[in-house]
Write the structure tokens for this entry.
Amino acid sequence: MTNQLKIYADGFRQSETRDFIPVLNPANQEVLAEVPCATPAEIDAAVAAAGTAFEAWRDVPTIERCRLMMLFQAKLKEHQEELAGIIARESGKTFVDAMGDVWRGIEVAEQACNMPSLMMGETSENVARGIDTYSIIQPVGVCVGITPFNFPAMIPLWMFPLAIASGNTFILKPSEQDPMTPTRMVELFYECGFPENVLQLIHGGRDQVEALITHRDTRAVSFVGSVGVGQHVYRLGTQHLKRVQCMTGAKNHLVIMPDANKSQAINALVGASLGAAGQRCMAVSAAVFVGAAGQWLPDLRDAMAAAKPGVFDDESAAYGPLISVAARERILGYIEAGKKEGATCLLDGSECSVPGMPDGNWVGPTLFSDVTSDMSIYREEIFGPVLAASQVDSLDAAIEFVNASPFGNGVSLFTSSGGSARKFQNQIQVGQVGINVPIPVPLPFFSFTGWKDSFIGDHHAYGKQAVRFYTETKTVTARWFDTDVTPGESNMTIALK
Ligand code: NAD
């Protein structure tokens, strides 16, 4: 019998729905599970139960909430290999990459344990004679998280540990493409002794997302996914007066100066463009070679050609299959478009196969050079193992090229010049910058600060900004009397004193 995943809507339960989506192993199309599309009644039950749980959870001392979060952090570590095994099977990631997916999430759970300091307010004594003002940080209520397929452990963990440690209750709607990992994480969460209903789990797709973000009793929505869906979620959520943050798609550049360390730059380009089959929002999908660095393209092609995809437990595999048949088809379409639009295809991964795995969603490493900014392989997020290389004459031209892109998630510069690096970090219009670091994802005590079309909202994911997102600030102005009113003193004069 197929493994039918549970939802958590006022408790773990089997959904009453008749609408299921198969969860497929992308290496061979084996059906691993069926994910239910939760019914409207189940969504209502989840929101109502989260609302009731909030009334008690918000009053649990922050430090006590964090003690439970510490147990969850330890539980995730204990189960890191088990979770990585599930990720590898349902998403196709290599085991090493899947271990990293869990680890980067564990780091956020760790950061959530710091909530007592993160929720401290500010105090100002004597804002007027005898009057003090201080701020109190309080949770907003029932929060919703909508997550993509590409980090089934890390991205849910960007959200619910911080929201819950700060006193909210949370409803997670993970990707329907790899929902087994988040389902297991919710089970592990409740093994730590959290009160029931603090975290809910709703499975499904568009209908379930829309029901959650338009529901009268949800307050804040965190979304991570593609640009188009993010814009839709932002518009719909804000129309329904929700606080919304959307971390969306990207096209990340790596700029290579001729004074860069050549082997480091090539190694970084291979890892950052092909790792996780290019299905990372911080993957490098555009290389910009400055001046004589363009002569390194043949070496880059050879290094990329040596990287082979394979199944998750093949230790020699550089990356795994694409998430779905549709994703593979889309990427093959882009490779064809690149050829037609006039880019030079130095390495073509369209005919890729892996021995013994004829049905896997394989795409081999692909490299284009002479790419111009009007080509679709440059303009659009491909989300596959395809690197589009462009050549420019100077650092200024590279900065102008990158700044013209509508995306602003991540960018890197490889150079040995401090002056070039300083100029680059100052002038580049991108929210996360790496200097000789190819994928500059900040650790969770900073925030994940994508810009431009890669982010919609005010406060970013994790770090201090996420605490602001999941909380309200209340400002108290207080006066304690030790005298009676002086004759002739009015309320107005007291206030103005
Ligand atoms: P997606 O947009 O297809 O799906 C994301 C979530 O939205 C899923 O839970 C899905 O069920 C839901 N969804 C899909 N269509 C919807 C609709 N029409 N209305 C409402 N909800 C809908 O994204 P994906 O393919 O799962 O993930 C890949 C994308 O995520 C890429 O664009 C990648 O760049 C982006 N991403 C961004 C970041 C970031 O931090 N900026 C991080 C990871 C991934």
Summary: The domain at 7-248+454-476 is CATH 3.40.605.10 (Aldehyde Dehydrogenase; Chain A, domain 1).
